[in-house]
Design a protein that fits this description.
With about 525 residues, the protein is an alpha/beta fold. It contains 16 helices and 23 strands. Strand 14 and strand 15 form a beta hairpin. It is globular, with a radius of gyration of 23 Å. The site of flavin-adenine dinucleotide has 37 residues, from helix 4, strand 7, strand 14, strand 18 and strand 22.
Length: about 525
Amino acid sequence: MKNGENSNQFSRRNFVKSVVFAGIMAQIPVMLHSCKNIIADIFLKITGTNHILGHRLWLKNFPKPTETIEIPILIIGGGITGLSAARQLVKKNKTDFLLLELENTLGGNSSFGTNKATSFPHGAHYLPLPNLQDKELLSFLHESKIITHFEKGMPIFDETQLCFKPQERLFIKNNWQEELIPKYGNSEVANEEINRFFEITSQLKEEKGFDGLYHFDIPIKKISKDQKYRDLDTITMKNWLIEQKFTSEELFEYVNYCCKDDFGIGIDFVSAWAGLFYFAARKHDASSNENVLTWPEGNGRLATHLAKFANNKTKKNHLVYEVKQNKNAVEVLCFDAKNNKSVMYKSDKVICCTPQYINSYLFKDRKTSAKFQYAPWFTATISLKKESDLNNSEFYWDNVIYKSKGLGYIYNQHQTVNQIIENKSLTYYYSFSNADLKAARKGFLKMKEEEIKKIIISDLSIAHPNIENEIESIEIYKMGHGMISPTPNFIFSEEKEMAAKNIDNKIFFAHSDLSGISVFEEAFHQGIDIINQIL
Ligand SMILES: Cc1cc2nc3c(=O)[nH]c(=O)nc-3n(C[C@H](O)[C@H](O)[C@H](O)COP(=O)(O)OP(=O)(O)OC[C@H]3O[C@@H](n4cnc5c(N)ncnc54)[C@H](O)[C@@H]3O)c2cc1C
């Protein structure tokens, strides 16, 4: 699920595979018939962000606080932003802080689970190699031993944390091809358009504004003030493709997939500026190849490194339900779900590392603009049966199905050096791309396990026709407000700017939704910047 690659030619290896696959396809009617009677029982488990506790924010039916704790600095939210803020405080020798997290794990969208075979991501699962100019990120990766050392100013990454080969494949026209850019059976027009698209994005990657800064850069705060491309934020990605006179299905499908993967919404809904950001903001200048960093637990690995800085300063299962300013201190009311009691915290500085839709419940008069749109997501971690045929097949790290509703699946044991793996584990990704994300969320949250299972099976059956019989269990992880989804007129909006403003230099806001782009780098920098603003 990485984009911005260059297209390659179709290889002979895939051609051989396609012939073999055609033979298998001929047998499918027989296989499907025999499957009918032996549809296996799949053990289904459904978890996700803590909706039940979260929904109590609406009701506010919490017991009255029975205890008051004074703490100079309080961080609310233990996602990447909150954890990065904790790290920055420690770097600045400020250790008199506490972090409150609603879930029983840290990491937020970058948290992870474990099953009997492996760890697996709940959400975020990789970090592209950072831009060379991003010194803070390079420094964090170095201290976390992800970068082993530097040679002539270039970072050298630990090989075991770089994504191993084979990396990405696309199931298209009944064939698995290497890489995600459609190549197999493309028309000449499609190939020309794909090349032209990458020529444009390569140029955008390099281009700088009047102030010498890139038009597209990550983190987004570093971009040029030059307005040249900002109008692209007023149209959708699809309209931009049409304006550029692109017509081929293959290109539209590819870009649609990338936008859904990066923002949860497809080209019909995402801002063209945001869509192009993904192809142009990463400079791929820290290495000669465009690899990514990944781990079985996904970006849970990065969250774990950051969490070391908040050791013994973290309270999990703690839901903050009200923040108010008093003469001498900021008062934060928090429900301790484990002990079923409420606590009042009194602090000089409070940093809300929570998404804006949550903040509107924490403050009496804080409305969140409807411009903050969040796509619902689920991930589903599939354990294959020991005896299943699929268990013996060679998975790529990232496996995507052309034109499918979902976003494909990751092979969780890809980075394992162990050759014998009894139960293979796959994590499937799905976002609800829709004009009305609120309605989509409502429908999604009502969905039962069986309904979600049907989505997964019918999607994966395109590439793996017998999959239903190969699965031992599925663990579904629901995220009602998965990630910020930048629709037109949001990224440069006044509403977004206002939401990031602090209150009386006492209450501060930091979260990836305030950058408008939900990725590790943005959350990481949001955390650092907010502390630099305070201290
Ligand atoms: C399915 C999915 C896949 C993704 N894949 C990638 C990827 O591969 N690479 C990548 O870079 N990014 C990915 N992302 C983006 C990811 O969102 C960011 O990388 C990053 O994790 C966001 O961190 P954050 O701290 O800004 O937000 P969050 O993760 O939203 O953190 C907010 C935290 O606040 C807590 N909280 C909320 N309300 C309260 C309250 N009232 N009291 C106490 N605590 C509260 C939450 O539980 C959460 O822990 C993905 C996102 C999703 C949803």
